[in-house]
Amino acid sequence: MMYIYSHQKFHIKITTGAEARDWQEVANKEHLTALQVSLRKIFADAENARAEQRYQKVREQRFRETSESTNVRVFWWSIMQITIVTVMSLWQMRHLTQYFKKKKLV
Description:
Helices cover 73% and strands 0% of the residues. The chain is mainly α.
């Protein structure tokens, strides 16, 4: 009998950057001492940190550009709303004044 639903678990471990390298293999291949391997790990970590900083800088710049664009649009939308409300108010005042004059209430 085959079950349609079965519960299966699996774990995935993804390593990136300096952790993804097999440092023992690098040490054996290049005949490095433990100190040299340790220094290579530190340099790889520093390069990963620099790459992350560059990425964050680009991301922050894009966010700033988006924010500035949105602020400009909100500013002009507000100006347009104020203009429309002002024009409509003036039109209503003029129309009501003419109406009352026509009805001889003023």
